[in-house]
Amino acid sequence: MTLRVEGLAVARGGEPVLDNLSFIVTPGAALILRGPNGAGKTTLLRVLAGLAPPLAGRIDLPPESAAYSSHADGIKATLSVQENLWFWSDLYGRARDDAVLDDFDLRPLRERPAGTLSAGQSRRLGLARLGMIGRPVLLLDEPTVSLDAASVGRFAAWLKDRHLAAGGLAVIATHVPLGLDAPELDLSRFRADPWTEQGTDAAFL
Ligand SMILES: Nc1ncnc2c1ncn2[C@@H]1O[C@H](COP(=O)(O)OP(=O)(O)OP(=O)(O)O)[C@@H](O)[C@H]1O
Q: Taking every annotated instance into account, which residue ranges of this chain make up the domain ABC transporter (predicted)?
């Protein structure tokens, strides 16, 4: 599966944010989104995920192929860690595979109500959801927020060895280096700006 974006323009709160954005992410590859606060990383990921419509352009992505992950990952506070994972696998018609408990170091916490987890533990559970639902296209907004160094490493290893190695792809907004051999797309080059001719610098491949 390949993600193709052509001539994309996106807006937030009615204001154009990015314009004339084109890129391709192939199976097994990741693209890192860069840019200062407000550059449009979240806005772009939300449009790619289908949570907001584009202003213009084309996104070539099969329906039901993507998973979007940001701060709120739909964790059910009263269910245990294990029950949350099973809830997601059942919802997406996937096998109740326990391997993600180890991938995200959640096995010691499996019986804990999710509402009692620390911020970083909760983040790990949110990321483990991606392992349970098995979507080939991951759209990740600051996935390492609240994670300690060991957890960042474990997540990067999962992404590389399990997701990308299996032919999945990922678009990731992150300020934290993940050690992936992945190209970076600086969104400041594509700012929609009604006062200048910026945004005509189109292709990023
Ligand atoms: N709900 C909203 N209504 C109006 N404008 C918004 C809204 N949310 C964000 N914006 C604006 O849209 C622009 C892009 O924001 P976005 O959140 O996509 O940036 P970002 O690159 O993800 O930033 P950060 O690094 O801070 O997470 C910014 O100018 C921001 O102020």
A: 3-203
